[in-house]
Amino acid sequence: MARWFGSGNLSVMTVLPNTPRAVAPDVLRARLDRASTEASSRGVDALLITPSPDFAYLLGYRPPELERLTCLVVPAGGVPRLVAPRLEAPLARHQLGELAGDVEVIAWDETDDPYALVHGLLASDARRVGVQDQMWARFVLRLRAVLDPVELVVASPAMAALRRTKDADEVDRLRAAGAAADRAMAAITGERLSGRSEAEVSRRIKELLLEAGHQTADFAIVGSGPNSASPHHDPGERVIGEDDAIVLDIGGMLDGYASDTTRTAFVGDPPADFRALHEVLHEAQLAACAAVRPGVPAEEIDRAARAVITEAGYGEQFIHRTGHGIGMETHEEPYIVSGNADPLQVGEAFSVEPGIYVEGRWGARIEDIVVVTAEGGERLNRTDRRLYIVE
Ligand code: ZN
Ligand code: ZN
Ligand code: ZN
C-alpha cells in the first residue's frame, strides 16, 4: 500500500527512489482517540482536518490538495468520519486500508453541498470547532457561513499537543532522516566547492539527499562569502571562491519525517578572526545541546547558546531564535526561543542551530536535531561540528 506524505502529486511517486514506510493501523487508531480527547479537554466540539501534515498524522496518508473538499471530522468523544468527493472515495478507502473499518468514508456527489454534509456530522449542540491551521480560505469561509453561529478556532493547540512529543517509531524515522542528511553533508563537504556556483552546489546537495534515502530534497541553502551572513539565503549564481565562508543548510523528508542540518565550511585557510568566530559558535552549540533534558524550559536552551555568544561579544550578530521543533514538518512546536517557558518533554525533537552573522562579510551556523530523552538530549546529526576546510 502506498503511503505518500509529499506534495500530493501522485505521478511523482513513480520516479521516487523509494516509498515512505506505512504507519501501523493501531498507532493511527490511538492518535485518532487522542485527538478526540485533546479536543474535548480544550472545549472544542470537533476538529476539522483537511489534507495537511495533521491529516497524514491521523490517517497515515496525504491526499491530493484539490478544490473539492476532503475533510476529516473528529468529534470530541465521537467517531471520526472522512468526507471526500465521490471520485476520491476509492483512493481514500484504499489508503486507509485496515483503518477503513474505523473511519467511515462519506462520499459526496458533484451536486451535493459538502459543507452541509460536514455540518450534519457535528453534534447539534456544537459551539466551537477547530479547523486545521493550513486549511484553505475557500474552505474556511464556506464552513464559517454554513456553521454559523458555531465558533471556528485553529486546531493547532490540540494537534500540536499530539504531535510535539514523538513516539519510538517517529524517533526512528527522524533518526533515519538525520543519518541520511549526514551522509549528504559528509559527501558535499568532501567535494571541491570553489569554482562552482551556489545554485550548482545546491542542486548537487539535493541529489545527494535523494541518494541517501530521502523521498524529497526540500532545501539546500548554500550561502557563500557575504551571502553566508544571510541565514535563509537563496542560492544563486555567485561562484564560490578562495576565502569564502560557506553555510550549508540542508534537509528533506524521509518516511514522512524531516531532516535539517547545517555545517559551515571555508575555502582555503581561514583567517584567525573567522576561526575564533566559529570556535565561539561551536562552544555555544555544545552548551545548548548539553542543556537539553526533560523539565527544562525551552527558552533555557536558547539562553545557553546565547550566553556563550554574547559573552564573546557576538550577541548582536546572533539574529534568530536557537531552534524549532521538527517532525512531519520542518518547523513545528516546540520553538526554542526566549519567552517559551514550556518545560521540555521526553520525545520532543527540535533543532539547535545558533548562528553568528557579520553582515556584508561572513557568517556561520551549526545545526543538529536533538530529541529529548530521559537522560538528556540525543543528537540525530553526528557529523563533526568543526569548521570544514574545503578546496
Ligand atoms: Zn531557518
Ligand atoms: Zn536548517
Ligand atoms: Zn532548522
Outline:
This protein has 391 residues and is of the alpha+beta class.
- The geometry reads as elongated
CA distance, first residue to last residue: 46 Å
Domain count: the total is 2
Secondary-structure-based class equals alpha+beta
User: Helicity range of the residues?
Assistant: 25-40%
Q: Give the assembly state of these chains.
A: single chain
- The parts where pLDDT drops under 50 for at least 5 residues are 1-17
Bound molecules: zinc ion
* Helix count from the secondary structure assignment: 10
Can you characterise this structure?
The chain has helices spanning 25-41, 53-59, 89-96, 114-121, 137-147, 156-163, 168-188, 198-211, 272-290, 298-311; strands at 46-49, 71-75, 81-85, 104-108, 128-131, 151-154, 216-224, 245-254, 257-258, 261-267, 323-325, 332-336, 349-352, 355-358, 362-365, 368-373, 376-379, 388-390. It folds into two domains: 25-163, Creatinase/prolidase N-terminal domain (Creatine Amidinohydrolase, Chain A, domain 1, 3-Layer(aba) Sandwich), CATH 3.40.350.10; 165-390, Creatinase/methionine aminopeptidase superfamily (Creatine Amidinohydrolase), CATH 3.90.230.10. With 391 residues, it is α+β, with helices and mostly antiparallel strands. The strands form five sheets. It has a six-stranded mixed sheet with strand order 4-3-2-1-5-6, with helices on both faces. The structure holds zinc ion (ZN) (3 copies). Residues 249, 260, 262, 367 line the site of one zinc ion (ZN). The site of one zinc ion (ZN) has 5 residues, from loops.
